[in-house]
Structures are given as C-alpha cells and as structure tokens.
Amino acid sequence: LKAGVARDYTTFDEDGERWDFNNEKMRIKAKKEVMENKQEFIIGSVMCTDWSIMQNVNRKHFTDAQWKERMDNARSHLEFICEHYRLQIEGGRYFVHEHPTTASSWAEAVIQKTMGAANAWVVRTNMCRFGMTTEKKGHSGLAYKPTDLMTNSICVADQLDRRCLNMITGKQDHSHAQLDGGRPKQAQC
C-alpha cells in the first residue's frame, strides 16, 4: 500500500489551514477528498480525551453545560469519521478505526451501527507489540495501552490482533511505562 496523508488537528492543508473538523469548511473538504481520491484504506480515530476513563474523573471540574458541549463536540467528531467509514464501505474499500479498549465511544450508537453495516471485526491489541513508547523525566518504556481496532478487512484484523508478549507467555519479556502524568498525550502520536 502506498502511504497517504494525515488529516487531523496537527496537520495543515495546502493553504496552510489546520485540519480542524470543528470547521465545517474543513469537514466538507476532507469528505470531498475521500470521495474523489477513493483511497483503498483510511485509518481513523477521534481524540481520546472526552471518551477516556480519566476524563470521567475530571468531570467534576466542568459545569453540566460545559460537559454537554464537550460531549456534543466529541460525538460530532465520531459521527464525522464514521461517515467516512460508510463511504469506504459503499465504495467496496476498507477502513480501520482505532480507540483505547476502555473508551466509552465503543458503546456509542454510531459505532455500533458502523460495525453492523461493515460486518466489521474488532480486535484487541497492545501497543507495546507495535513498539509504542512513552517518556517521562528522561525514562522511556514500552506503552502497554490496550487498544481495540475495528475494520472491515479480515486480513488487516488478523495482522493487528496482537497481545503483549508478557501476557501470552506469562514471562517478563519487557517492562511497561505507565500512561499517566502527560504520557497519554504522547501516545496519541
């Protein structure tokens, strides 16, 4: 497969505009590109922040209105990426959706609907198997990070279905760095 391009808040279009999907213009542009370019695969993920267990701990720092606005925005992003998956399905092409195993987004209706429409497989992996590392105060280590991946390609599902070797063998093959204190932000990269 030929590598494509990233479309997220950390990247910019040819005019130097951030791919901010809160901006309707950028949503339209991204959808148009998917429809016109017909990439064989797209890989999607929404920001973990609002779907994470840790965010629920921070809930007390928000008013009800602030929390509703955050979750409305998070759902909008989730629906946006699922719309791209639908285009892939309808075009006979493929997608992979990635999100942490414990993310509450997996229970959202739009994800459940996408799973059904795609006859998708969901596999669990540990990111240490793919070499994900994280660093804190000069110490780095592999990130265990249990992650679920949804795809409409059985071949891709088979390749991504990898568990931590420590779990498989019952032996200490490697150690893990905890994803806390700013490390989860590193894991998004």
Describe this protein's structure.
- By secondary structure, the protein is an alpha+beta fold.
- It is built from 7 helices and 6 strands.
- It has helices at 24-37, 53-58, 64-90, 109-118, 154-160, 165-169, 183-187; strands spanning 41-44, 94-100, 121-126, 133-136, 139-142, 146-151.
- It has a 4-stranded mixed β-sheet with strand order 1-2-6-3, sandwiched between helices. The chain has a two-stranded antiparallel sheet with strand order 4-5.
- Strand 4 (133-136) and strand 5 form a beta hairpin.
- Helix 1 runs parallel beside helix 3 (64-90) and helix 3 (64-90) packs parallel to helix 4.
**Helix-strand category:** alpha+beta
Terminus-to-terminus distance: 21 Å
Strand arrangement, largest sheet? 1-2-6-3
Overall average residue pLDDT: 83
In total, the number of strands is: 6
Q: Over all CA atoms, what is the radius of gyration?
A: 18 Å
* Count of alpha/pi helices: 7
Largest sheet: 4 strands, mixed
What is the overall silhouette?
Answer: globular
Model regions low in confidence, pLDDT < 50 over at least 5 residues: none
The H/E string reads HEHHEHEEEEHHH
- Work out the helicity level: 25-40%
The portion of residues forming beta strands comes to 15-25%
Q: Helices, strands, pairings?
A:
Layout: H1 24-37, E1 41-44, H2 53-58, H3 64-90, E2 94-100, H4 109-118, E3 121-126, E4 133-136, E5 139-142, E6 146-151, H5 154-160, H6 165-169, H7 183-187
